[in-house]
C-alpha cells in the first residue's frame, strides 16, 4: 500500500484485496486496487529455514479443548445443534524467520491451495494456505464448494471415509443449496470427491450457479459466510456457542480473503475470487499463532477431535 491507512469493504462493490474476519459484525479490511502497488516475481528455489520450534501445547490446553468438544456433543445430542466447529490457537516460538522463505515453503508444500502472505502495519502479519474456495464469480456466474471431513493422507492405503465425515460433508452441501435458494438459478452440484492439501485429505463438492436479478455480491457473500465448514448448523446457534465457549478471538481465521471486483484485462469482466481462511497463522514478534479446528457432529469422539487438530497444526508447523 502507498500509506498505512486502513480501508474497509462495506458494500462489496469496492475493488481490491479483501481480508475479512470470521465475525460478520466486524469490518472487512480492503487493500484498494487504485492505492496498491503490484509486484510480479518468479519464484524458483527455496532454502531451508533454521528455526527453533518450541510448542506451547500442554495438557491443560488439551483438556480444555476436549471439554468444549464434549459440551458440544452433549448439545448436539439434545438436538440443539446439528454441527459446530470448535477451534483453538497454538503458539509456536520461532527463533528467527524470513517472510519470503516461509512463503516459498508454503507454495512448495501446498501446490493445490491458495497461498498468501498478508501484512498491514496496523493489523499484523498473516500467512495461509487454504484449500477452500468461498466464491469465484464473473459477472453473475459463480462457483463455490462445500469442504468438510479430514483424514491424514496415507499413500499405502485405500481412502475410506467414515459416516461422521460423510455426514459432515452432506450438511455443508445441503446448507449451501438452501442458502442459494431464491438468489441463484441454474444450480448444479457435482459429485463429492477427495482432495489433498499438504498431508491431509478432505471431501469436496463443487457447486455452480447464476446470481439472479434480485441479488448482488454482498447478498451472496452473506448467504455463504460463515459456512457450516467453519461455523456449524444452525448457523446462529453455532456462532453463539463458539463465541461463548472458545474463549479466544478467531480474528481472521475462518474469515475470507481474496480479490474483490477486479477487472479481467482479457475479458473486461469484473471478477471476484474469495477463499476461506483456513490453515493460517499470525506472526507477532517471535511467536506464531497457529489456528486449527474441526467439525463436531453427533458421531464425534472428543479425543479424536483433539488429535485431528494436532494433525492440522502440523500443516503450518512444517514451514517453520
UniProtKB/TrEMBL annotation:
Catalytic activity: chorismate = isochorismate
InterPro entries, per database record: ADC_synthase (IPR005801), Chorismate_C (IPR015890), IsoChor_synthase (IPR004561)
EC number: 5.4.4.2
Domain (Chorismate-utilising enzyme C-terminal): residue spans on this chain: 62-312
Keywords recorded for this protein, A-Z: Isomerase
Gene Ontology molecular-function annotations: isochorismate synthase activity
Family recorded in the similarity comment: Belongs to the isochorismate synthase family.
Listed name of the protein: isochorismate synthase
Species: Polaribacter pectinis
